Amino acid sequence: MFFHAHPDDEALLTAGTMAMLAAEGHRVVLVVATSGERGQADLEPGEALGAARIAELYKSAAALGCARVVNLGYGDSGLAPGGGMAEDRPDNAFIDADAEEAARRLAAILTEEGADLLTTYDPAGGYGHPDHVQVHRVGGRAAEIAGTPIVLEATVNRDPLLKGLRLVRRFYPQLDIRSFERAYSPAEAITHRVGVRRFARQKRASMAAHASQATGADTRTLGAMLKIPQPLYRLVFGTEWYVRRGLPPGTRLRHPFEVPPKG
C-alpha cells in the first residue's frame, strides 16, 4: 500500500516502484489523504479542481497497474507563501485531523487488504508540506495498529540534489537553497535505492496523467520534467529512494521486500 498526501505525489516519488511491484504480481493499493483541491492549476482551487485531480489520480493508477485507489477525503491543508502552515485552511484540513483517528482509518484498509508493506514519507515530509508531515505521523501509527511489517519512508537523496542546486546557483545567485538543506534525507540515512529504469514509461505516463499540475502558472516543475528526453528521463528518474527505520547504518537494499543481511 502506497500512502500519499495529494494526487501527483505518487507520480513523483513512488511510481516506478509501484509499477515494478504490480508487474511482479503484487496487489498494489494507492491511498491519498486529500484530493489536492488547493493545488496550483488553471482551474480555481476548490471542489472542481479536487474532482479533476482525483480523475487524474485514477488515470495515473491505471498506468501503474494499481488494483485499488482510496481517497480518505480530508481537506487539502494548502501551503503558505514561502512554505509552512497556511492560515486559511479548510475545517477538515488533513493537518488538523486527529492523527489517531486518521491512523485507525488507514489501519482498517491495511487490515482489509492484508498489506505487508506501507510507504509513507520521511519525518520532514520531504520538502516540509504540512500534509506530507501528517502522512508520516498517520502512516507510521497506522502500521503499528495494523501490524504491517514493512514501513518505507519515500524520500529523495538530498546530497546530489544539493549538489545540482549549488551548481545552478553559480548562474542564478538569487536562488535560495536553504530550505533544501533540510529537505528529504541525506545519503547515509537511505536504506533502499530501487532501480526503476525499466518502468520509466509507466512513471512518465503517471506524471503525464496529472495534466492540471503540469500546466498551471505556478506548477511548471512537473511540466518541465515531462519535457526531458526519454533517455535522459530514464537516467534522472531511474532510482527511487526509501528509508526503513531500525536497520543498521549503511544498509543498502535494492528491492522493497529485500531482507537485510544478518550481522
Automatic annotation (TrEMBL):
<dbReference type="GO" id="GO:0016137">
    <property type="term" value="P:glycoside metabolic process"/>
</dbReference>
<dbReference type="GO" id="GO:0016811">
    <property type="term" value="F:hydrolase activity, acting on carbon-nitrogen (but not peptide) bonds, in linear amides"/>
</dbReference>
<dbReference type="Pfam" id="PF02585">
    <property type="entry name" value="PIG-L"/>
</dbReference>
<protein>
    <recommendedName>
        <fullName>LmbE family protein</fullName>
    </recommendedName>
</protein>
<dbReference type="InterPro" id="IPR024078">
    <property type="entry name" value="LmbE-like_dom_sf"/>
</dbReference>
<keyword id="KW-0862">Zinc</keyword>
<dbReference type="InterPro" id="IPR003737">
    <property type="entry name" value="GlcNAc_PI_deacetylase-related"/>
</dbReference>
